[in-house]
Amino acid sequence: MSDTPVKQQSTAAFYGQAVASFAVAMAATAVGIFRLNADAWVRGFLAIAVLYLVTSAFTLAKVIRDRQEAGQIVSRVDQARLEKLLAEHDPFEKL
């Protein structure tokens, strides 16, 4: 009586869309910073800020995913313990 959850996977189209969207956004931001009418140090600062923002977003997404996966593992362990207790229990033992 164990229910194994279906592994959720993204389709190739969704993965491709995500990669393309990220590439377009980074390219547009790079072009915008490059064509900005400002000093070189201002453009450099904005470029570093964008890179820091991107790395922070990737780190946050990874942390959220890891916490969700850890919660699923704990849930599975608890479910296995409950199934073991129910399998070992004999309701007619004391009769």
From TrEMBL:
It comes from the Bacteria. The chain crosses the membrane at residues 12-34, 40-61. InterPro entries: YiaA-like, YiaAB. It holds the Pfam family YiaAB. GO terms for cellular component: plasma membrane. Signal peptide: none annotated. Residues 14-66 form the YiaAB two helix domain. GO terms for biological process: DNA damage response. Keywords: Membrane, Transmembrane, Transmembrane helix. PANTHER family: INNER MEMBRANE PROTEIN YIAA, INNER MEMBRANE PROTEIN YIAA-RELATED. This is YiaAB two helix domain-containing protein. It comes from Streptomyces actuosus.
